[in-house]
Amino acid sequence: IIGVVSEKKITKNNNIILELEDLTGRMKVIVTKTNASLHQDAMDIVEDEVIGINGFSKEKVIFATKILWPDVPMKELKKASEEGYAAFISDIHVGSKKFLFDEFMRFVKWLNSEIGDDKQKEIASKVKYLFVVGDIIEGCGVFPGQEDGLAIKDIEKQYDACAAILGQIRKDVKIIMCPGQHDSLRANEPQPTLYRDFARKLWEMENVIMVSNPALVNIHASNGFPGFDVLMYHGASFHYFISNVDSLRRADPKNNPSVVSKFLLKRRHLAPTYGAVNLLPDTKSDSLIIDKVPDFFVNGDMHKTDVSNYKGVTIINSSCWQDKTEFEEKVGNNPDPAKVPIVNLKTREIKILNFSS
């Protein structure tokens, strides 16, 4: 059977009881603890996700022998014929007193081939795409007491300051930008592009491409080459699943955020549990479904650089440009700022550049 997980319970004997539903009805599924491997898989099941069950029926209950997820198929590792690089950043947090201005300007100067050795300058000159995966500014009123940590307390001026910095990057670099929770627009996902009223100067930049959160972007296409599909998602749902899935907590996700990215790819959904994010429901479609399998799945939010691979999908979790705040200390985050993953699109080799002082 295939269905949506409407309920999950763990009995006193540590067996797992699932209730699956579809348009025709509901069915109880039992996963016994005697099958340790299957039981461990079932522990990772979350409510509202879609799964398949193989098993045998007894007294109107199915005893599971196998669990299947939508999952992504093995993806061909595409490579471009010509050399070019893509760089990935997120969580700039312009406007915060903890914004690392000097480190970010070092990155800007590197992109412009103004600093570094000859090899580094050559690579910088070949960077064609810069992905900015949310939290462009620090924002206002995002959490209690935030105003005490603001260097710029006006939303529009925060975006103006960001535009002044990004505007120094050479104009042949395409800057592809999506919002995050700190940006000044609705928190409900999917988030639209940044509001023009606040981010006017960013919108006026000729090399900035505004996209939603999430967004699927195709880059580097040419005659005979389909290009690379990049799925951008800032990562608001990460925190819910870290808090509710034991295997993710044990994997130290705040230092290894790609484990959460793999969890979502396996489910083909960016927030499979209703309530994992503030959702703006759409009766016609679900824009958080991972329909087309991307070549790159890029995230932010965790303030930690992590690069991994899942069935041919390259996973990139971006670093941040903000020093550790009191809020992050309270929630246990351990930021690793001023790191930039860059991908050679010809070889798919990834380097992580360090712009910290």
Describe this protein with a few key phrases.
alpha/beta, 6-stranded mixed beta sheet, 5-stranded mixed beta barrel, 9 helices, 357 residues
- Structure class: alpha/beta
- Strand content is 25-35%
Report the major sheet: 6 strands, mixed
Elements, N to C (H/E): EEEHEEEHHEHEHEEEHHHEEEHEE
Total strand count, please? 16
Distance between the termini: 56 Å
Uncertain runs are none
Q: How many helix segments? A: 9
Rounded Rg: 22 Å
Helical content, roughly?
Answer: 10-25%
What's the pLDDT, averaged over the residues? Answer: 95
- Strand arrangement within the widest β-sheet reads 9-8-7-6-15-16
The shape, in one word, is globular
Structure description:
The protein has nine helices and 16 strands. With 357 residues, the chain is of the alpha/beta class. The strands form three sheets. A six-stranded mixed sheet has the order 9-8-7-6-15-16. A hairpin with a 2-residue loop joins β4 and β5. The mean pLDDT is 95.
Task: Summarize, please.
Helix content is 20%, strand content 27%. The protein has 9 helices and 16 strands. The chain has a 6-stranded mixed sheet. Strands 1-2-3-5-4 form a 5-stranded mixed β-barrel.
Layout of secondary structure:
Layout: E1 2-10, E2 16-22, E3 25-31, H1 36-43, E4 50-58, E5 61-68, E6 85-89, H2 101-111, H3 118-125, E7 127-133, H4 155-166, E8 174-178, H5 200-203, E9 208-210, E10 215-219, E11 228-233, H6 238-244, H7 246-250, H8 258-267, E12 296-299, E13 306-310, E14 313-317, H9 326-331, E15 339-344, E16 350-354
Parallel strand pairs: 3-5, 6-7, 7-8, 8-9, 11-12, 12-14
Antiparallel strand pairs: 1-2, 1-4, 2-3, 4-5, 6-15, 10-11, 13-14, 15-16
